[in-house]
Write a structure and sequence with these properties.
There is one protein chain. By secondary structure, this protein is α/β, with parallel strands linked by helices. It is 44% helix and 20% strand. It contains 10 helices and 10 strands. The strands form 2 sheets. The chain has a 7-stranded mixed beta sheet with strand order 6-2-1-7-8-10-9. It is globular, with a radius of gyration of 20 Å. The protein starts with 6 loop residues before the first helix and ends with a strand.
Length: 272
């Protein structure tokens, strides 16, 4: 099938997508944008790409749908285990130490770019297992994809999706049903799924931990820096940021400090 987009059309659509979300399309992934736009035109029973451009320019819901369609939602439970080892063995003990000195017993976490929910559910299972009373936690899980958020809110995953969950977590926090597993209510109630475009400040403050893994790679440097600065503002002093193992803040002018643990590398807001 012939390409839908001319060079001028490609520039037009990648600019509006960048302006709306910070997501960058280069010539190397032009075919992805082309195929997603073909899908949207078929769905809307339209044939003119310029008419579709007018539609997204005037219809915020269709713009959200387009942004949903161009995002990549690859995730799995316990993805990149060293991050979760660092969370359990380094980050949480330090967070609890500070919480104790402040008389605060709620750990606040943001899973940004949570996709279909495997990451926030993994975090919740770990914290449910290791936190001593009276400490508890709450997680905000956000994404640009409404379809992915709906999967996360339902908390049901077919058998192919639960590989990688250690047996002690699977047996304790997942309920076998038909051809898959349902996350138990005690875990689900700790997570609030919410739509959020990382181009904008989420308004969250005094968070203890942010996970935003394998999302920044879709942004150019200005959009990455803006997002990182939003994260910095959202975190409490001495709080922690996890990004993807292939991502780095090296060379970026941020206030975060690089932190190397025995398990994984992460970043810390080191204001006193």
């Amino acid at each position: 099938m012939a390409d839908l987009l001319t060079d001028a059309d490609f520039d037009l659509f990648r600019k509006v997508i960048y302006d709306e979300s910070g997501i960058t399309f280069s010539t190397t992934n032009r075919s992805i944008l082309d195929s997603r736009l073909k899908e949207r035109l078929r769905e809307k029973k339209m044939t003119d790409i310029h008419e579709y451009y007018k539609l997204i320019s005037s219809n915020k819901e269709e713009m959200k749908t387009l942004l949903d369609s161009v995002t990549t939602n690859l995730t799995r439970f316990f993805r990149n285990q060293p991050h979760f080892d660092a969370l359990e063995k380094y980050v949480i003990p330090h967070v609890l130490e500070r919480k104790k000195s402040r008389g605060d017993n709620i750990i606040k976490i943001w899973s940004a770019g949570c996709s279909t929910g495997e990451e926030p559910y993994t975090i919740a299972m770990i914290l449910k297992k290791i936190l001593p009373p009276p400490y508890t936690f709450e997680i905000v899980a956000s994404d640009l994809s409404l379809k992915s958020l709906m999967v996360g809110k339902q908390g049901f995953y077919d058998n192919s999706k639960i590989t990688g969950i250690p047996p002690e977590y699977l047996d304790k926090y997942m309920i076998k049903r038909d051809n898959g597993y349902q996350v138990c209510d005690d875990i689900m109630k700790r997570i609030r799924f919410d739509y959020h475009n990382l181009k904008y400040d989420a308004g969250l403050r005094n968070l203890d931990i942010i996970f935003c893994r394998n999302v920044l790679i879709y942004f150019d440097e200005p959009a990455q820096l803006a997002t990182i600065n939003h994260f910095y503002d959202s975190l409490a002093s001495q709080a922690y940021l996890f990004i993807g193992h292939s991502e780095s803040l090296f060379g970026m002018k941020t206030k975060f400090e690089f932190l190397k643990t025995d398990w994984a590398c992460l970043y810390q807001k080191n204001e006193k």
